[in-house]
Amino acid sequence: MNSFKPGIFPADFTPARWCAGPHRQTIWPVTLRRQTVPTYRRERVELSDGDFVDIDWHDAEGPLVLLLHGLEGCSRSHYIMGAVHALGAAGYATVVMQFRTCSGVPNRLARSYHAGDTGDLNEVVEHINKSRELFAAAGFSLGGNVLLKWLGETADRRPLTTAVAVSVPYRLDLAADRMSRGSSRIYQKRLISLMHAKTRLRLDAGTSPIDLEQLHQWRTFRSFDHNVTAPLHGFAGVDDYYARSSSLQFLRGISRPTLLIHARDDPFMTPDVIPRAQDLSSSIRLEVAERGGHVGFVGGPWSPRYWLEKRLIAHLRAVSQNPDL
After folding, report:
1. Which of 63, 139, 174, 259 could be cross-linked to 135 through a Cys-Cys bond (beta carbons 3.0 to 4.6 Å apart)?
2. Is this model's pTM higher than 0.70 or not?
3. What residues are labeled active site?
């Protein structure tokens, strides 16, 4: 593909026969893909509220791409490392923004990060652009939701040329409900346990703004977000948080060429979260695969081929070749 055409299209992806099914597609890259950790250069960005985020640079000549990880991810997440290696081989430099509490170092404030937190992203982008021009940004899952919300909030003021968002929970309420049903509860249990541990590590029992003795009872995304995420970040409750932070409502405000990639069988959400034509601006191309799991998209007849990385690079090159977009 050598051009960017907005609209909704089927993704040109065929899953590997030995990696069929949403759960295999989701779990294979996490557990069985062998990768070396990129050589990062870490930089700390001081934020206006007195806290910080760490960003990891993979220095190289060429256009700069900002990467945003998903819930409880980091610069060592499988999809981030895969993108960093693939982009580097294709002539792109990368920088990974790690949300508060995700870089392996406890933050200073009680608050953390959430799916609608665009303030930190805005400060990081402003910091980056003081020394280097940012060409593109790519967000995965929760990071994609943050990126799309940020792009839609003030449209043309965003200082980048293009964006890509993968496996985004466009409706946070529907995604949370899906994660509480069936086999998706396996993913919820793992992520909630990580969030519990990090919450206890970050907050002191004597001064915590939430009741840590009750933390073990909040075992679903809805209960955790109602009792932890919402009060720590100024929301009236879980419904207020989901309503104000879901990226679907911001898509029509996006004016940069933006590629959305989604699998209809994503086990983190149901197909009804997928945007419709009326939800999209004229600058968005949505590619929907029937299969692919959550940030999976493992293809190849015999050995695994990671289609997502090739599609990301193809999009960046297409936009580079069409400066009038």
Report:
1. 63
2. yes
3. 141, 266, 294
